[in-house]
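In the laboratory, one determines a bound structure by crystallizing the protein with its ligand and collecting diffraction data. In a computational setting the workflow is compressed into a single prediction: the sequence and the ligand go in, and a structural description comes out. We illustrate the idea with LARABZUK.
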Amino acid sequence: MREPIVKLCGNQSLSDTAKTASSKASHLGFIFVKRTKRYVRPERVGRWIRKVRPRQKLVGVFIDPTVEELEEILHFVPLDVIQLHGNETVSQLLQIKEAFGLPVWKVVHHQDGGLDQMDIFKGVADGFIVDSKVGGASGGTGVRFDWEAVPAYRDAAFDQGVPCLIAGGIKPENAGELLSYQPEGIDISSGIERENKKDIGKIQAIMKEVEANVASIS
Ligand SMILES: O=C(O)c1ccccc1NCC(=O)[C@H](O)[C@H](O)COP(=O)(O)O
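The predicted complex, in structure-token form:
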């Protein structure tokens, strides 16, 4: 049975990181996109990681980063995965993979042509995240999409031999519904927050839903 991928994203403080790290999630995410509400400074994240020592894999979220920017972040934070949330091209992904030797997850927004986007990155992306498209926002919107589309994305990623996480508006109250579509992984940010801080009760509630559905997402 494969362990479900659960990424708890948008950690903004030592306290957030301690709460998400105390869970059974597999990945913790940090937003390195300047001028967005969950942006965190890499040197701070580095300090939190040294204190908390999470057992989870660390994911850095970026929009159209340069190799130099990534180099700077990696100097402070030992990322395990680079998540690209912007308009990056295949050649940019290849350049980043070559420069750092880290897995790169490409975000595809759920909209017409979402599956074609996944096809474009076939053999290059090491994983996909399918997120809601909400106006000009890139992510962290707290808005879900029509999950009837989930099996098509899941199967397309499966055919490529890479994981696919579903993101956008997942919360304890609706996680069971999403998990019934058997995604390989889920990515949550707003749904585990209360007043912009991660909430241990919501984290535990999400993880309880995952555990209850573990057979269906493995
Ligand atoms: O979270 C943000 O503020 C953000 C800003 C810019 C680009 C990406 C961002 N988040 C990426 C994520 O991986 C979120 O976990 C994902 O979009 C789901 O967010 P939510 O709907 O809040 O659960």
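Residues 64 and 123 are 20 Å apart (CA to CA). Keep in mind that any predicted model is a hypothesis to be tested, not a measurement.
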